[in-house]
Fold each of these.
Amino acid sequence: MPAKHSNTPYTGGYVSYLVTTRALADTPGFTSGSQSAVRRRFNDFVALASALKVRLRGYFLPPRPHKSAVEGQLMADSFIEERRSGLERYLQRLAMHEAAVKSEVCAR
């Protein structure tokens, strides 16, 4: 669920996205079914993709959604939903990538 954050002294406003994870039965170090939720900005996903690209050089990784946005559209509901949907697909594909899931980059 996206949340709009209004203007701050340092930014013109931004959107954060709720990321929820659920541990599977075979996830070491976690209780099966345990859940965790955090809010992340789009730039956090850009940083994740960049770190994975460096750490997993030579692997085919799922592409992250493009950052393309027209300044006036950043806070439009339709743009936010399109971006949310793209981020959800990206994370689902990443969760199926064995090397990415095992990387310490994804554990953060």
Note: The first strand starts at residue 2 and ends at 5.
Amino acid sequence: MSLCRLLILVLVVCHASTAVRGGIHLPFHPRTPTPALPEDDALLKRHAGAGAHTPEQVRVSYAGPGAVTIAWVTWPQEDRSTTMVVRKLFMVEEQNKHRSRVCDDIKDMRLKPTVQWGYTSGSLVHEERGEYTCYTTVAYDSGALHHATLGARGGPLRPGSVVYYRVGDPEKDVWSEELQFKMAPEIGPKSLPYRLGLIGDLGQTKHSVETLDHINANNPDSVMFVGDMSYADGYHPRWDTWGRMVSEHTSRLVWMYTEGNHEIEPAHSKDTPDFLAYLTRFKMPYKHSGSESQLYYSYNVAGAHIIMLGSYAEYGEDSAQYAWLENDLRKVDRRITPWVIVGMHAPWYNSNHNHYGEGEEMRKIMEPLLYQYGVDFVVSGHVHAYERSEHVYDNKLDKCGPMYLNVGDGGNREGLDFDYFKQPDWSAVREPSYGHGILDLVDETHARFVWHRNQDGAQVADSASITRNPNCRSVGMKKA
């Protein structure tokens, strides 16, 4: 055997790792990609007969106390009955090359995005007018991206109510089917129990569809999505196919998002900034929490205060995100929201070889804040595998540290991450399988987390019961 082959063999052996609880070992092997569903798949393509103003890709997200934002997409540039002239891609030396003017034309159309809604099916007696925008890249023109907020101007929506609605444009007289979602309960511990669905790194593969079906079967009250959504990676039609794939779920259940690295889609020109699709399509309630950026924000739901951090926004001690986080944590009243949960994309605790240490700098800077203010759970993705930690702080077991839940196993095209380091003391369970998490906040002091593997159907693959320790709080903080 040659020296070169011997060295390769040694490297492979050294990379063998503990993959799951019970000391089971898996040999090293790289990701095995899963093909994305084709763009003409029934779940991804536009419905047969859909017109230029037919709403699609409907989503519901919280928009501050007692309010939600409903988003949808139409394609008015396909309406040949309008006076709009669709200009094709062209090259003009004195202007930016290969630019489309379709978005400018859409903005000039003066569309009237509207949500008709009510508390009784078939009786949509309220109406809310929204706004719309669009965006253009070198090779793509979006449709009209509509957003309308319910519960802001006319008073808050009724807590815990079922809201029936449809979206469309009254002047075009084209509407979606009647849809419905359940509004969040009143803020406070009396609204517990509350069930959170946890998803990361979804993509648009057959595994993605399984994850969606399984989390739907577990009936969460809302969903935390911790980044890496469409895996469009600059090919923007994949944002539309992803929006259609998830619409059955996002139109009937509140989903809240934070960005992952695949949402960055680095700019290739000054006219296509980073995060272009994410920031244009998704409207998160950052202003309600005092944030200056859509890349990080917080919101309250039932008895929980949920913070969505930006792994790819500045996070140093002199950054706006750090100052905002410290202020946000300082204002938490644990008598009202006894549970504090943080979501982000890149994990701070990860024993997988893939993406190992990528969140370390952010951890060193921000972890003391989370510990000081007694954060209970930290949810992340990025690593395409499941891992649950013990309560940990500064890489040591600590009963006052958060429990870290890595759920980057939603089903994306890049495949699973199989290769692990030796399992550290803080790592309770880890496994490279597709799935999702469910976090039940039972009451003010008790919670239960379960992880569902896709191949297990309704069975639980891992679970943990948590008792919150009210003494794990900083001096001067409002305690429960």
Note: The longest strand covers residues 162-169.
Amino acid sequence: MILAAGTSRGIIRIWEIRQAESAANFTDHLDEVVGMSFSENGYHLVSASKDNTVQVWDLRKLKTIKTITMPDNYKINDVVVDQSATYMAVAGTDLKVYRCKEWSEVVTLKEHTADVTGVRFGPNASFLVSSSLDRSVKYFSE
């Protein structure tokens, strides 16, 4: 069992809980880590940072396998991978959904009138719920 912690300096620390020891440190982010999410099988970790990047980490090889760079004026607040590891959502200036494996953007949702602060998937990615500084919670489904 592992635990990940992100720091204000952009470092991600991976801990092996059973042995109570550090397993890895990732230093690719250049600014504060604002969100992280493990894939369902625990092989991947996605992390979001104030440096306007989302990093996809392979925890078996202990390296970055994909970097998604947002535009300069984009603000990232959260990131999550759904339970099936099919989709990833990034909350920030708007709400972006990506297809995992290809890491291609599927849709951008701009229903909020202020920054999106949080996002979570429902079971089997059947719906998406987001919160925003506009003091609303939005529910998205097909």
Note: The chain is about 0% helix and 55% strand.
